[in-house]
């Protein structure tokens, strides 16, 4: 890539194995459905969304020495993504995904090489990180490696977004502290509150909380940064530090979800995060609310197609 990347994404690549059926299987139940396979992993999904929504993108990951790795490299090249991969002694990551007719899904991940992405390899990407406008990471890679990427970004004055997914992934207070923006969904937000703030809330009820209560919980979790809680069909809730509203007029507000002819919600959260990063990097002078609306619309469009990375819409212009 001749020009400096606007977004560096640090994260995972998986080969997704996807089964579609009438409903999600219950424990002990066998269902008949259809099968497909394709690229995924939160990191690659978000990198693809970044690139397809307009940002020059570097993707830092770990891959095996197998057909999955070759697929990753080929797909990245097709979307103009500068892929930089460590090659540990492990297979490329995999995921088993079950999708019901209503678009709901459940996922099991086999990390493989993703679990071996090292801080040392991340450190070798310091020049690319320092030249970027934004670094985006998730938690399907080792915490210490994600932390190294975020530290390098902060040291260079580069903005950071942490998508703390999946909900059961380990995280530390130190990691949260180096995130300028934190983007959990309801389940991830509830898990982080319990783990780091000693507050227990019902994830399924969060969308019904009033704004003042949600804002207080966000400030408790991330006092110095911005929290964006994605609430599915209920849209998103944004909470800023009172004296750092990122171009917005108020410290907390909601952004409604965009309507879509939903087929598959598998990669919607990744579409949102990738587009949020892309929008901030490409149009830094716009208000944060504009970036969230752009990301919400992009995520809605992604649900109208099956798959994860393959479902990310390709936009002609920002």
UniProtKB/TrEMBL annotation:
Residues the record lists as binding K(+): 264, 266, 302, 305, 307
Which transformation does this protein catalyse, written as a reaction? D-ribose + ATP = D-ribose 5-phosphate + ADP + H(+)
**Which major enzyme category is it?**
transferase
Domain of life per record? Bacteria
Active site (catalytic residues): 270 (proton acceptor)
Query: What does its activity-regulation comment describe?
Result: Activated by a monovalent cation that binds near, but not in, the active site. The most likely occupant of the site in vivo is potassium. Ion binding induces a conformational change that may alter substrate affinity.
Tell me the keywords, alphabetical order. Answer: ATP-binding, Carbohydrate metabolism, Cytoplasm, Kinase, Magnesium, Metal-binding, Nucleotide-binding, Potassium, Transferase
Q: Which cofactor does it need?
A: Mg(2+)
Q: In which pathway does it act?
A: Carbohydrate metabolism; D-ribose degradation; D-ribose 5-phosphate from beta-D-ribopyranose: step 2/2
Query: What does the record's cofactor remark say about binding?
Result: Requires a divalent cation, most likely magnesium in vivo, as an electrophilic catalyst to aid phosphoryl group transfer. It is the chelate of the metal and the nucleotide that is the actual substrate.
Q: Where in the cell is it found?
A: Cytoplasm
Q: Which residue numbers delimit the Carbohydrate kinase PfkB domain?
A: 5-314
Q: Recorded GO terms, molecular function?
A: ribokinase activity
Main localization is cytoplasm
Record note on quaternary structure = Homodimer.
Family recorded in the similarity comment: Belongs to the carbohydrate kinase pfkB family.
What biological function has been recorded for the protein in this entry? Catalyzes the phosphorylation of ribose at O-5 in a reaction requiring ATP and magnesium. The resulting D-ribose-5-phosphate can then be used either for sythesis of nucleotides, histidine, and tryptophan, or as a component of the pentose phosphate pathway.
Q: Which HAMAP family match?
A: Ribokinase (MF_01987)
Q: What is this protein called?
A: Ribokinase
Record lineage: Bacteria, Pseudomonadati, Pseudomonadota, Gammaproteobacteria, Lysobacterales
Q: Which gene encodes it?
A: rbsK
């Amino acid at each position: 890539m001749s020009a400096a990347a606007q977004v560096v994404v640090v994260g995972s690549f998986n080969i997704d194995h996807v089964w579609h059926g009438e409903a999600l299987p219950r424990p002990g139940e066998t269902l008949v459905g259809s099968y497909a396979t394709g690229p995924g992993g939160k990191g690659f999904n978000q990198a693809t969304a970044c690139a397809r929504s307009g940002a020059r993108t570097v993707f830092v990951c770990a891959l095996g020495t197998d057909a999955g790795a070759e697929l990753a490299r080929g797909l990245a090249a097709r979307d103009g993504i500068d892929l930089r991969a460590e090659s540990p002694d492990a297979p490329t990551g995999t995921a088993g995904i079950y999708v019901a007719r209503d678009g709901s899904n459940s996922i099991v991940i086999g990390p493989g090489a993703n679990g071996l992405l090292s801080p040392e390899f991340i450190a070798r990407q310091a020049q690319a990180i320092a030249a970027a406008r934004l670094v985006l990471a998730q938690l399907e890679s080792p915490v210490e490696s994600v932390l190294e990427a975020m530290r390098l970004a902060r040291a260079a004055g580069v903005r950071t977004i942490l998508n703390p997914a999946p909900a059961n992934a380990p995280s530390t207070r130190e990691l949260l502290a180096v995130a300028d923006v934190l983007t959990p969904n309801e389940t991830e937000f509830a898990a982080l509150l319990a783990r780091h703030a000693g507050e227990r809330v019902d994830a399924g009820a969060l969308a019904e909380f009033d704004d003042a209560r949600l804002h207080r919980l966000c400030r408790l979790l991330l006092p110095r940064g911005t929290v964006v809680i994605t609430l599915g069909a209920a849209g998103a809730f944004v909470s800023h530090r009172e004296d750092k509203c990122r171009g917005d007029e108020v410290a907390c507000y909601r952004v409604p979800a965009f309507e879509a002819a939903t087929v598959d919600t598998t990669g919607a959260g990744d579409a949102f995060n990738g587009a949020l990063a892309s929008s901030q990097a490409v149009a830094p002078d716009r208000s944060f609310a504009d970036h969230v609306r752009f990301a919400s619309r992009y995520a809605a469009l992604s649900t109208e197609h099956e798959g994860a990375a393959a479902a990310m819409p390709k936009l002609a212009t920002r």
